[in-house]
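Many introductory courses stop at the sequence. We go one step further.
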Amino acid sequence: MKLDKKEFLLDKSSDMPQHVAVIMDGNGRWAQKKGAERIFGHQNAVQAVRDVSEGCVELEIPFLTLYAFSTENWGRPKAEVDALMSLLVSTIKKEIHTLIENGIQLNAIGDIDSLPVDCQNELKEAIEATQHKDKLVLTLALSYSGRWDMLQAVKKLVKEGRLGNLHEEDITAEMFSKHLSTNEIPDPELLIRTSGEMRLSNFLLWQMAYTELYVTEVLWPDFRKEHLHDALIEYTKRDRRFGKVNDKIKL
C-alpha cells in the first residue's frame, strides 16, 4: 500500500519527522507462536525492514535508523548469534539492488569491528555502493548501545584534551553530540518500538532526549507500511514543547 502524504492532513504546526528510529522487537515471540525456532522470526523480519524503508522514501522522510543488533545481543546463544550474522550477510547481498533502485543510502553505527569479517566486508561494499543515494539514509545500529556510544565520545574528548586541543570550557552539548557515532544525522523525532515493550533498551540514549515514543503491540515481522502510517499519524498529533510552554496555553 503506497502512502499518500495528504492522508496525514499536515499543517504548519505538525510536520512529518525528519528522522524515525525503530526498535525492531518481537521476532522470537513471532516465531514461537508459529512453533518455529527464533531464527525463523528474524528471517521473516526482512519484509518489515523493506516495507518501512520504502514507506519512508514514499513519504520523503530522509532518515531511518533501525536497532538491528545490540551489544547485549552478543549474550544470546551462540547458534542464534551465528545465524543472525549469516542472515545479515545474505540480506545485504540480496537487498543491495533494491536499496539502489529506491535511492537508499546505507549507513551503519556501532562497534562494527566486533562483527565477523564477512559482515564487515558486506557492509563496507554496500555502504560504498549506495553512498551517493539521497532519498533516504538507512542506518543500521549493529553491535550498538547508547552507553557504548557515549563512552566512545568521552574517550575521544579525553584524547583531544591530552593533546592540548581541548579545554574544559570548550565542551558543550553540541560538541559532545559531534563526537557520537550519529554525528552526521539529526536526532530522531520519533521512536517506534514494536511488540509492546516499554523501554529504550540502551538505544540512542543521548540522541533521544526529546524523541516522541510510539509503542505498538504488533510484532516486528508483522509490521507493515500501514503500521508506520499509524505511528506517523499519532506523531502529528503530539505537541512537542521541548520543556517549554505552548504559547496557546494561558497560565
